[in-house]
Amino acid sequence: MKKRTPVASIMTTDIITLNLTDSLETAEELFKNHTIRHIPVVSGDSIIGMLSYTDLLRISFVDAVDEDEKDVEAIVYNMFTIEQVMAKNIISVSSTTLIKEVAELLAKKEFHALPVVDDNKLVGIVTTTDLINYLIQQY
Questions:
Q1: Checking DSSP bridges between strand 113-118 and strand 121-127, what pairing results, if any?
Q2: How far is CA 88 from CA 48, 51, 57, in A?
Q3: 2 lies in a domain?
Q4: CBS domain: which residues (predicted)?
Q5: What is the tally of structural domains in the chain?
Q6: Measured on CA atoms in the order 24, 86, 41, 34, is the torsion positive or negative?
Q7: Residue 16 carries which DSSP code?
Q8: Beta carbons within 8 Å of 56's beta carbon, 6+ residues apart
Q9: Tens digits of residue pLDDT in 27-75
Q10: H or E segment at 52?
């Protein structure tokens, strides 16, 4: 197994992002259409937060009995903004951070994705899935 491999070799660089002006319905569409679970929230090239699919599930607590599920989701999503739901105190890594260090961070924290930032610019995202795929390739 390679021991000094930078996270740049496994991170996703084709990043789907959101802005504060986007709706939570837009976020849900992006999660579902791209089969992803984490979306960085940006202002220009700078990351200001991270939204996870789990964040959306937490606010979708409404149990619709006689209503159309889509209608109920739309009502709930319109009650909140991305800024209210996203994680704001995020930890990021640089593209030169070693995969081992990223794995240690993700193992200790309660999140499953880290934005990759170089010179205050979002350049990628690395997830636990990326790490698992990397480990599979090593064996």
A1: antiparallel
A2: 7, 9, 18
A3: no
A4: 11-67, 86-139
A5: 1
A6: negative
A7: -
A8: 24, 27, 28, 31, 77, 85
A9: 999 999 999 999 999 998 899 999 999 998 888 765 444 455 556 566 7
A10: strand 46-52
Report which of residues 134 and 67 the model is more confident about: 134
3-class secondary structure per residue, 71-94:
HHHHHHHHCCCHHHHCECCCCCEC
105: domain CATH number?
3.10.580.10
What amino acid occupies position 20? L
Q: What residue type is 35 in one-letter code?
A: T
Residue entry with tokens 């205050």: 120
Q: How far apart are CA 58 and CA 54, in angstroms?
A: 6
Two tokens, residue 89: 């105190």
In one letter, which amino acid is 122? L
Other Cβ atoms closer than 10 A to 67: 12
Give the range of the structural domain holding residue 37, as residue numbers without chain letter. Answer: 7-138
- Return the structure tokens found at 135: 């480990």
